Amino acid sequence: MESRSKSNPQLRRALCYSDVNRQQERSPSVIVIGGGIAGIAAARALHDASFQVVLLESRERLGGRVHTDYSFGFPVDLGASWLHGVCKENPLAPLIGRLGLPLYRTSGDNSVLYDHDLESYALFDMDGNQVPQELVTNVGEAFEVILQETDKVRQEFSEDISILRAFSIVFERRPDLRLDGLAHKVLQWYLCRMEGWFAADAETISLKCWDQEELLPGGHGLMVRGYLPVINTLAKGIDIRLGHRVTKIVRRYNGVKVTVENGKTFVADAAIVAVPLGVLKAKTVKFEPKLPDWKEAAIADLGVGIENKIILHFEKVFWPNVEFLGVVAETSYGCSYFLNLHKATGYPVLVYMPAGQLARDVEKMSDEAAANFAFLQLKKILPDASNPIQYIVSRWGTDINSLGSYSYDTVGKPHDLYERLRVPVDNLFFAGEATSVSYPGSVHGAYSTGVMAAEDCRMRVLERYGELDLFQPVMGEEASVSVPLLISRL
Ligand SMILES: Cc1cc2nc3c(=O)[nH]c(=O)nc-3n(C[C@H](O)[C@H](O)[C@H](O)COP(=O)(O)OP(=O)(O)OC[C@H]3O[C@@H](n4cnc5c(N)ncnc54)[C@H](O)[C@@H]3O)c2cc1C
């Protein structure tokens, strides 16, 4: 047979063709739904493990809640912009290091409360007077004591309550911790930043669970050139279909059938569902048979918060040379936060970041009104501020591709919801930030869930094929190459 094929090129071609065909028939296949960091990480891993992979993404762009915009002529992130955990243990560190992407560290602290070091705090009252640094530091320390006291409340109460309720119990018990005047407003600002971390208001954040996520060492670093290069690198060579909004996922014992908006269908051995929690909550993707009750309950019970960015581009810098400008107020709702991108990138840009109810209210405005609103907050502290020359407004809460910014624990719901969201259902695997038990609401957490779902899927599919040793493990050489991170503080 072999010698015959050598002597007859036509027959040899035919054999090769049928070999390829057979190989392709045998090659396990997976559909990845959602082209955010989690979906792309899963697709990359399975592609590298010789699976046939197709990734279906509803938008006309990749990245999801990683969205680097270049319309100002330089990169600005409308979604994620920090690497939380600037250290080699961060699962994204090898890739960021290899790409030589610089990071600007805003904080060396590993807490969820401080994404900026205390010395870079520049807070102002509504009249534009800067709050003395000593007061900012003292109130910061008082805030930590209050949180320690809330821990005692947590131990005593069998039922979960909100962070806000816990604060008022602490103030009833420890009147000495109550602050007045300017100090009270600074405290509200700290609360406002805490709400920003969860993208939710203090009256909805769970006292039992607020500090359950893990924090990597190394503090918080801004991706100076934006997050998109990470997405683009991971996506290289993958069969990606943009503008493919999935509407239905049918699972059978021998595979899955996925339907997109225009009626086109895709079949494969398994699927990885990496759409946001907000999209799952909205039930715009139908599952057949329906998802088990425990999965549906987890989708319903886990919270999804809103944080937005209003990015203001000015002709030149007219603000103080600090990492951020904060406006303190009587309530956390009234406080403001402007990230000074000029510090990290050299471009004259301020990013206003409302969260929770304020973010929801700002989303009801037109882009122009939202940009004006942000500018008015700035005018309160810098009356001579010149008008922005350009602006961009994000709408993560109402965008049908996200329907929220990131997940958080709401009052009275168990912390194991993240795990329940992750657990596969037959040949459906789940990935995305809301399935990350250790690092929910983050890019590196979402990335890890993609890699993990890919590994679970690979094992499951290959067990069925009975060919476990034929394919490479999903974590290939990339993970082992270590290049140090480029970290700066200008
Ligand atoms: C304003 C903001 C600031 C943030 N800041 C930070 C930060 O500084 N650092 C950090 O670590 N994290 C941050 N995060 C969180 C981080 O961005 C997310 O945790 C992470 O990007 C989520 O990735 P994902 O893959 O789980 O989801 P996504 O990125 O949302 O990906 C899901 C994908 O599914 C697609 N999709 C939706 N519906 C369908 C459908 N029916 N069919 C097909 N595709 C569909 C979406 O278009 C999207 O591309 C921030 C988020 C926001 C919104």
From TrEMBL:
Pathway connected to this protein: Amine and polyamine degradation; spermine degradation
GO biological process, one term: polyamine catabolic process
Protein keywords: Oxidoreductase
Chain ranges of the Amine oxidase domain: 37-457
GO cellular component: peroxisome
Protein origin, superkingdom: Eukaryota
Binding site for FAD: V246
SUPFAM superfamilies, per the entry: FAD-linked reductases, C-terminal domain, FAD/NAD(P)-binding domain
Cofactor(s) listed: FAD
Keyword Transmembrane: no
Single annotated GO MF: polyamine oxidase activity
Binding site for substrate: Y352
Similarity-based family: Belongs to the flavin monoamine oxidase family.
PANTHER family: FLAVIN MONOAMINE OXIDASE, LYSINE-SPECIFIC HISTONE DEMETHYLASE 1A
Protein name: Polyamine oxidase-like protein
Natural source organism: Quillaja saponaria
